[in-house]
UniProtKB/TrEMBL annotation:
Coiled-coil spans in chain: none
Secretion signal span: none
Subcellular location: Membrane
Pfam families linked to this entry: AA_permease_2
Keywords per UniProt: Membrane, Transmembrane, Transmembrane helix, Transport
A GO CC term attached to the entry: membrane
Domain of life (superkingdom): Bacteria
Keyword Phosphoprotein found: no
The protein's name in its UniProt record: Amino acid permease
Alphabetized InterPro entries for the sequence: AA/rel_permease1 (IPR002293)
Length: 508
């Protein structure tokens, strides 16, 4: 029986609506880019405010990226995996991100709407894959925000201890981590949520100011440390492998790249802001690639200085940069470094919360989530209700879940999202070759292919239990999709959702 037809508001060609029943073809029925853009233009209610600039996007990317990775993971990766070759691990991670970043730039300029990877996947692989990646992005944004908030709490308590102050133990950590509730972690999430609910312009200005201060502190560390280097600590650059894959040697460089890849997570948050940018076709690529270049330079500089100040085996501590400062006899400067870490973690949490609200906004617009997540406040022009709910849930997670459990849920999910972004570029080049591309990746099959291979290589370097956790998380997501998301999206009230099935073979 043929599917019912309806027409768009503007009288364009009939729309084909797939039934919500068990039609497996509906699971791979993609939504064309033209329909995505039309739905954004025809949306009821106030739209999201478009008031961000290219500079705002660069600050969002840098603010999202430079956080726990540079202040914590550098020491772990050097001590356990790569040694002085940590600089090579960062470069490998940056190369993989560059391939992915170019793909993000093409898609963000071509499809400047909220949703980022979720929206690109819907346009290329259909609703099932879109739901999977939307669920996966919860790991990248909400769980990452909670992880960063717990790290922020640790640094804040360290600064308080330096000042002779301390919180009661019951309020200083989650159950299982020596306390009853992590009050500082929940508090910073709620404070940042209040800022995001109010106005994205105010949030962008606060983020830009914090990013400038954070970069200044990092540059101060690099400058001071460069005057006290011990070049002998860099030899050998690649320590001999211990006989175990990933334990030093070139396999350790690869394993180290997979670990420090967490430090690059965040630059793609720029793509979620494309729908709130004044000139997204120009500004989104600048924000994506500019923030990635700046963070790579800072990471490589910090890794080189860190391993040139302290023997790499001594860097397996929670605060490796503070340890390096102690090694050169400037203990008081460690307080400044801790403040820099606090600022870095603040901007990371801010942008992660921002990105999660925009992902949920796009998913709710398609019917996968309740309508509340798609409501835009008429005054602030932000998804205020959604942002508030996300902030509340994230604060509860940060308050009651230890950081080691949270941290295990992030990196591999982001690599999966990156693979789908590269795949989206290849698919759209075949299915919609004539669509205007304000930013066009040169040699797209090569760049996207290398991006996919790079991410797969980094995923292969991660421990096996990380894959198990990802599989469990995705299984939970599929259960939610089967029981709620699939049918609700098909029955979305007042919407005529147009789907176009992917052809069995790409057109010539």
């Amino acid at each position: 029986m043929p599917a019912p037809e309806s027409r768009c508001r503007n009288g364009s060609k009939p729309l084909r609506i797939l039934p919500a029943g068990p039609d497996l073809r509906a699971l791979i029925a993609r939504k064309p880019v033209a329909r995505i853009l039309a739905e954004q233009a025809e949306a009821e209610g106030p739209p999201l405010a478009r008031n961000l600039s290219a500079f705002s996007l660069v600050c969002i990317g840098v603010g999202a990226t430079i956080g726990a990775g540079i202040f914590v993971l550098t020491g772990t990766a050097a001590a356990q995996y790569a040694g002085p070759a940590l600089v090579l691990s960062f470069l490998l991670g940056a190369i993989a991100c560059a391939f992915v970043g170019l793909c993000y730039a093409e898609l963000a300029a071509m499809i400047p709407v909220p949703g980022s990877t979720y929206t690109y996947t819907y346009a290329t692989l259909g609703p099932l894959c879109a739901w999977i990646i939307g669920w996966d992005l919860v790991l990248e944004f909400a769980m990452a925000a909670a992880t960063v908030a717990v790290g922020w709490s640790g640094y804040a308590q360290s600064v308080l201890a330096d000042l002779g102050l301390a919180l009661p133990a019951a309020l200083a950590g989650a159950p299982g981590a020596g306390g009853l509730v992590n009050l500082p972690a929940a508090g910073i999430v709620l404070a940042l949520t209040a800022l995001l609910v109010r106005d994205n312009r105010d949030a962008a200005r606060a983020n830009a100011a914090l990013v400038a201060l954070k970069v200044a502190i990092i540059l101060a560390f690099v400058g001071v440390g460069a005057l006290h280097l011990t070049p002998a600590l860099w030899s050998p650059l690649v320590p001999q492998n211990t006989g175990t894959f990933g334990s030093f040697g070139w396999s350790g460089v690869l394993r180290g790249a997979g670990v420090v890849f967490f430090a690059f997570i965040g630059f793609e948050t720029v793509a979620t802001a494309a729908g709130e940018t004044r000139t997204p076709q120009r500004d989104a690529p600048v924000g994506l690639l500019g923030s990635l270049l700046l963070t790579t330079i800072l990471y490589v500089a910090v890794a080189a200085v860190l391993t040139g100040l302290v023997p790499y085996r001594d860097l397996d501590v929670a605060d490796p940069i503070a340890k390096a400062i102690d090694a050169i006899g400037l203990g008081t400067f460690a307080i400044v470094i801790k403040l820099g870490a606090l600022i870095g973690l603040t901007t990371s949490a801010l942008t992660a919360l921002y990105g999660q609200a925009r992902i949920f906004y796009a998913m709710a617009r398609d019917g996968f989530l309740p309508d509340a997540f798609a409501r835009v406040h008429p005054v602030t022009r932000t998804p205020a209700l959604s942002q508030g709910l996300i902030g509340l849930v994230t604060a509860l997670v940060a308050a009651f879940v230890p950081i080691d459990i949270l941290g295990e849920l992030v990196s591999i999910g982001t690599l999966l999202a990156f693979i789908l972004v590269c795949t989206a570029v290849l698919v759209l080049r075949r299915t919609e070759p004539a669509r205007p591309r304000p930013f066009r990746v040169r040699a797209a099959p090569v760049v996207a292919g290398l991006g996919i291979l790079s991410c797969l290589a980094l995923m292969a370097g991660l421990p096996g239990d990380t894959w198990i956790r990802l599989a469990v998380w995705l299984a939970i997501g599929l259960a939610i999709y089967a029981g709620y998301g699939r049918r609700r999206a098909g029955l979305k009230r007042g919407r005529a959702a147009q789907y176009e099935r992917l052809p069995a073979r790409p057109p010539p």
